[in-house]
């Protein structure tokens, strides 16, 4: 479920970190920028502008953790996946200092560990909850997995009272109701993924802004699963007792 | 930021588990910068991913075990993705094997072939301790049944 992604980026090291080993500073900056991130890919110019804006703001807030967390919401690299951590640095080019800015800028080639399951991969997660849209599954570090009603073991029905999906398993004795309760381990197959560009759009005209309703908060990276095959679903359904 | 290759290599759960454990050790030793603003994200993702991976079979694996597993898998002619899934999940039943390996009916004509594959997987890859007890108990019963020929 994890892949290595080769990336290249320009990393800015502020002067007060010049006493540290370059590799360590760079590794820390890359992890700060990408770990747990699902951010849109931008042009390098936009990135360094955003980055230097962040640093000015961070300086003025004395690395206030809450503010920094707000500036770094969980983002996914577009079409790549959820970034976990730096694997290694493959190449460091020369470091440059530009006029007007005391920091050094270094172009870095590196590899990053990214969560990106391949199509049809089997994964095991925990049920986070059920809704009429389907069963929501979480892996702990990644939450946006949905199993839609048509991909559940059939026949399935949604119990409104308990807000839980149920598999009406037929046997000779009659139908057994197998509940998909929150917190249960579930084995599923990845059948689809979707990347949504969540970077901010430009300001809209006054009328458009007034007439449009609240835009839906969409996850930048989400997976669609299926448990319709034998062997899939709650682990407890298939263990030999 | 530019992506040069979005899929340069597949990583097994064991490799990521090892990497994150080493990273955690390193950061524990260096101490001071851990709780600064930017490190929060890395801390969160490391903690959550380690929590998830430590409940999977990769926790008991080692480089030697992985090497032994891949050598043994050569004779079964599986694709890289299939071997990776077997390594990550350690299936114990034929149903699970059929989920991870495509077209088992055409590729494994004899039932013994699937049994042999299952046996290779369960004998080389270490199990969770409670699973050991369960399978240990059931194989003991089977042996008792076979006992007097």
Automatic annotation (TrEMBL), chain B:
Gene3D superfamilies: 1.20.1250.40. Keywords: Cell membrane, DNA-directed RNA polymerase, Membrane, Nucleus, Transcription. GO terms for cellular component: acrosomal vesicle; DNA polymerase III complex; plasma membrane; RNA polymerase III complex. GO terms for biological process: neuropeptide signaling pathway; transcription initiation at RNA polymerase III promoter. The keyword Membrane applies. Its main location: membrane. It is a peripheral membrane protein. It is found in: Cell membrane; Nucleus. Residues 126-149 are annotated as: Disordered. Residues 1-128 form the RNA polymerase Rpb4/RPC9 core domain. GO terms for molecular function: calcitonin gene-related peptide receptor activity; DNA-directed RNA polymerase activity; nucleotide binding. Pfam families: RNA_pol_Rpb4. It comes from the Eukaryota. InterPro entries: HRDC-like_sf (IPR010997), RNA_pol_Rpb4/RPC9_core (IPR006590), Rpb4/RPC9 (IPR005574), Rpb4/RPC9_sf (IPR038324), RPC9 (IPR038846). The keyword Nucleus applies. DNA-dependent RNA polymerase catalyzes the transcription of DNA into RNA using the four ribonucleoside triphosphates as substrates. Specific peripheric component of RNA polymerase III (Pol III) which synthesizes small non-coding RNAs including 5S rRNA, snRNAs, tRNAs and miRNAs from at least 500 distinct genomic loci. With POLR3H/RPC8 forms a mobile stalk that protrudes from Pol III core and functions primarily in transcription initiation. Pol III plays a key role in sensing and limiting infection by intracellular bacteria and DNA viruses. PANTHER family: CALCITONIN GENE-RELATED PEPTIDE-RECEPTOR COMPONENT PROTEIN (PTHR15561), DNA-DIRECTED RNA POLYMERASE III SUBUNIT RPC9 (PTHR15561:SF0). Component of the RNA polymerase III complex consisting of 17 subunits: a ten-subunit horseshoe-shaped catalytic core composed of POLR3A/RPC1, POLR3B/RPC2, POLR1C/RPAC1, POLR1D/RPAC2, POLR3K/RPC10, POLR2E/RPABC1, POLR2F/RPABC2, POLR2H/RPABC3, POLR2K/RPABC4 and POLR2L/RPABC5; a mobile stalk composed of two subunits POLR3H/RPC8 and CRCP/RPC9, protruding from the core and functioning primarily in transcription initiation; and additional subunits homologous to general transcription factors of the RNA polymerase II machinery, POLR3C/RPC3-POLR3F/RPC6-POLR3G/RPC7 heterotrimer required for transcription initiation and POLR3D/RPC4-POLR3E/RPC5 heterodimer involved in both transcription initiation and termination. This is DNA-directed RNA polymerase III subunit RPC9. It comes from Chinchilla lanigera.
